[in-house]
Amino acid sequence: MAEIVISIAAKISEYVVDLAIRQGQYLFRVGRFIKNLEKEKQKLLSTLDGVQERVEATDKTEQVKESVLNWINEAEKLVKEVENLETEIETNGSCFKGQCSIGKRYNLCKKIQQKIESLINLNKNGQFETISFPAPIPGSEYLYPGNIVYFKSTQNASDQILEALRDDSINLIGLYGMGGSGKTILVKAVGNKAKAMNLFDRVVLATVKERILVILDDVWAKLKLEDIGIPCDVGNQSSCKVLLTTRLRGVCTLMNCQREVPLDLLSEEEAWMFFEEHAGIGDYSPSELLKVASNVALECKGLPIAIEAVGSSLKRKPIEAWKAALYSLKHSKPMDVEDGVRDAFSCIELSYNHLRSKRDELMFLMCSLFPEDHEIFVEDLIRCGVGLGICGKVESIDMARNQLRASINKLLDSCLLMHSDKNTDHVKMHDMVRDTALWIASRSANEKILVNLDKDLNTLVENGDINDSFAVSSWNKKTNRIAAQVTAPKLEFLLLSTRMSLDMTSSSFECLKEIKVMAIISEGYRTLLSLPDSTQSLTNLQTLCLRGWDLGDISFIQNLRKLEVLDLRACRFKQVPKEIEKLSKLKLLDLSGCEVLESYNSEAIGNCEQLEEFYVSGPSFQRDDKFIFPCQTFLDDVTSPNLQRYVLELGPLQTYGHGINENSSVRALSLKEFDISKFGASKMNLLQRAEDIYLNRLRGRCKNIAPELVQAAGSMNDLTKLRLRACSEIECIIDTASAGSYFQLDALIPEELYIRKCEQLHNIFPENCELRCLRVLKIDGRGLYQPTVAISCAAVVLFSMSAAKSLEQLEELSIADCKDLRCVISDEDDNGSEDISQALSNSQSMLPNLKKLYIHYCPKLEFVLPRFCVGLEKLQEIDIFKASELKCVFGFEYQHEIQTKLPNLESLKLQNLANLVRICSGNSQPLWPSLRELRCVNCPKLNTSCINVMIRSTMKQQHLNKGDSLEEDQGKKLASRLEQVEFRGFSELRFIWCDPTNREILSLQYLQCLKVDGCAKLKSIFSAAILRSLPELTSLVIQGCNELEEIISENEELKSVCFPKLRNLTVKNCNKLKSILSVSMLGMPPQLSYLHISDAAKLVQVFRNSSEKIVFPNLREMKLNKLPCLVEICKGFELLQPMKAMKIIIDQCPNITSISKAT
């Protein structure tokens, strides 16, 4: 026992001695430890560099082992820890010189030794023989496995993508849309469909030696496809295609996408269907809940992620939760919405985070100050942005405008803003995007924004809501008095809007020391605005916008010495104060549409030499005679060379719609009853520099623009747009006889020329004139389709042959009310035939950029363009109306037989043409494979064969490209892209699409609307074969077809549902029709919503049916009128919804049985 104790004691003694030696080393060999630490760190760094180089050199189709990646992370982490320890050693350097406790020195040295051991061990583990293995090829199993719901927007985008995938010339396609709009789900569904259609062997994310489709989802910046293993050389175009999705349209441009496909938002009806699915509601739900739910769905404004998030968050919730959510969505309180909605906000916030520019971010937040669905005028954003100093210090307003427009374009490209459907220079913000912006601002320390539509400024001040706000917007339409002492030390932007007269005399702005932008907008018509005296204390104000008010005295503006932008559009006031010249920083003055009672003081405005932009015009209509119009003395007084932009309408009341508007050029001048004989060239600075000139009733015995008007002005070298109205003295635009060598004729032709009611104008362009810059020419006496009689000009010929050949840039040609016009392009030049032959032999095209061609009310015109106008490849629209002598569209013959090819023509309208015989003279047939709209109305001499040729021309190009002859078309299925078709007044027409004896099968898969009227001999509308190819037909209107016996020639049985999308069915004045169609044989139109039948003397049943029961689930309106033989709608017909939910009108149908009500 004693021996055992002695042995144990010896071992303990040995361990203690070793430990003491090691611990002694910690205290006395510190320098060696520090050197070893650095040495081992460098060894590990060397190994780490080697491993990383091998990883970077790995082939893009190889996958790096996870153990290698984990080792790299551990090594980087350890190196960081060692560097931190080295910093600690430097900080405690005195400790190793005995100037700290032994315990502290011991602990520090021990830590060094532990890191040395970790470095050694990790370095040993980093000796990898292989670092990667071949990556598996991801296939379609990674794509979306479920079924996508195809709405109109998704279907359109899907169709465009699939069309591009079939095109061998396209190898890069971009799909762009707002965050949460469904891009990822769509491209995965398209990938599945493309693989199922055998368009590709695989749908993958890496390059392989197969025919593949690569989908790149959620791309935020330009990618070099080669860097991720995708071949981009021309030789791979047909074997490899790339489909990318992005929120930024600019990414599509940067990556040179050959096809850019937008993904639009859902319609209201589509959104409701989608919302019902996610909210778990339907027709069975309580009516009160459905009413609230409908409004909630509307607030999501068609954004799929918002619909899904809001609907899911309210699923199975009580009605009170629904009402609370609706209130929150309507009143811009996103913080109060259910947590699920935050997912939508976070998705949109991601786009905001990618802006990366403070200017872009502030512009985004500024757009949220406007109400939901508000059409925001871009110029308003620019003027407010200038006042806030978003761009910092810039040389001019115009430079700031360029930067701010760039920000707006960035927001548009990022799908954070949308283009307006109504106004070209307006934008909109989606409601969910707007709520996200307010949510972001609510969490900001410096840019808090308060927007309120219910409370007026008084309430907001009393509640202290605005105390810490950067910007406040109040849109209470009933606010009529503000008496609050506004205290908001951080407020820089105040935006108020109301419909009432507004009394602010008792309020105070004295505490608004930081305010830079104030906008007070009237939604009424020049209601009274009374501002407080403290308004003149706003010495930091840089943008002031008072719009639509009766202001009275505006002399207070003379104290706003920092003012840069003064916007008084549509206001009424006494006079422009003479002291305006003291505003030394004023750069923009807008007096558009103002009623000025006493004086404009144009001389004082002219003394503002720093003024860069000036806009002035009288009111849009004359309410009384108390105000004065801006007169032509402005031409004398406002001559500052610093003036970069101006829009001036001078003279008495302008005519609606034909003065200068918001979208005009940079420098625009409108003069009414301008007498050029009273003004010298030295006083014509504004006229000389103008880009856009509108002359109404020009006087002073001026017979031409050049040389007479140009000489009076001194020069007009910047002119790009010229508009003439009721200039009765003008005989020609350019008089070459008197112009001499002083003028260069080419430079005097503007890009756009508009002529209205110039009755003496007989020679618009001289024969030898070069028109290479002319882009738009519009001539009319009253406007298109207007019923009043007027004369636009006295011209017989518009262009000589030589002048027509120079029309290289002409895009739009619109001619109306030319009672003497006989031809657009003359064929009477001395060398006309030789020039044409030479042009044809050299394959030269005439009018190569023409896109729109309109001819209205030209009674002597026999043809529109000569047939030698070959190469009209960009022509998109032809609209000809009331040309009684017109025999063909493309006229007179030469020895060459020419085929008219219009590859991009989308719309052809021929209306009220009493003598039109055919489209082209001679035997040739036109080709327009892209035609989508065809309207032929009251063209009685246009025979049946010509109509058939017009239809065939929409699909023949496909076969001719492949070398097929017309005879070879027999028996083939030919596809047409027609979407809208109307035929009216063809009494001899017996069939529309093709002769029933013909073996051709025509596919009308894109047809949406068909209207047939006044075709007395028509027996049927569709054959059974054509019926199979009508998946998109939504509206069918048939009127005045007295011989019509059946809509569908039912000579064979069809098992599929006919008209799957038909919503509107109207039949009138078809007296041989006994029924509309057989639903037992053809199937029920499931989407039918509107059914109107009248004046059908022999109609017995609307629908033939042999089954026991039939319902129309979506029927909303049914009108049956003057149907004496009608017995029933159809056998077994029942309404799915209660009659009170429908509009049913039955009149003069004496034999009809009662309609069964829904149960």
TrEMBL record:
The keyword Coiled coil applies. InterPro entries: Apaf_helical, At4g27190-like_LRR, LRR_dom_sf, NB-ARC, P-loop_NTPase, Plant_NBS-LRR, WH-like_DNA-bd_sf. It comes from the Eukaryota. Residues 157-207, 209-279 form the NB-ARC domain. Residues 34-92 form a coiled coil. Keywords: ATP-binding, Coiled coil, Leucine-rich repeat, Nucleotide-binding, Plant defense, Repeat. The keyword Endoplasmic reticulum does not apply. Gene3D superfamilies: Helical domain of apoptotic protease-activating factors, P-loop containing nucleotide triphosphate hydrolases, Ribonuclease Inhibitor, Winged helix-like DNA-binding domain superfamily/Winged helix DNA-binding domain. Residues 793-893, 903-1042, 1043-1155 form the Disease resistance protein At4g27190-like leucine-rich repeats domain. Belongs to the disease resistance NB-LRR family. This is NB-ARC domain-containing protein. It comes from Stylosanthes scabra.
